[in-house]
Each structure stands twice: as C-alpha cells, then as structure tokens.
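Task card 7
Instruction: Convert sequence to structure tokens.
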Amino acid sequence: MSGPALADLLGKYRAFDLRFERCGWFPGVLYLASEPDTQLRRLTEVVAERWPEAPPYDGAKWRERASFALYE
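Output:
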C-alpha cells in the first residue's frame, strides 16, 4: 500500500465530520469510537477491497469493532 495509491483511492470521496467521543480496550488494542461511523467504515471497506492482503485489524471482525485503533 503506497501513499499515492491510497490518496488516489480515497481522493474521490468527500471530506466529512466525525467525533471520537469515547474510547475502549480490546486485548492489546486501545480504540477510539467515532460518531457517526458510517463514512469511516465505508472508507475502511474501500481500502480492504483494494488491498485484501492487508485486512484491517489483522482480519478480526472489524465491522463490529472500533473505527480507529491504536495497537500496542
């Protein structure tokens, strides 16, 4: 995944507002929950479809998890 390729992929989407209003913890992962999360999750899907060899959250069920994660 390269910076220019990622910029090309996501550059066609409009900017949007979101807030990180709460955080939580999964084993080994601190996450920030976004509100609303619909658009950020869609961008995650787009990236995952383009680079299936690098799934978000190491292939965990990310649709059920946070939108932004900080790994240990």
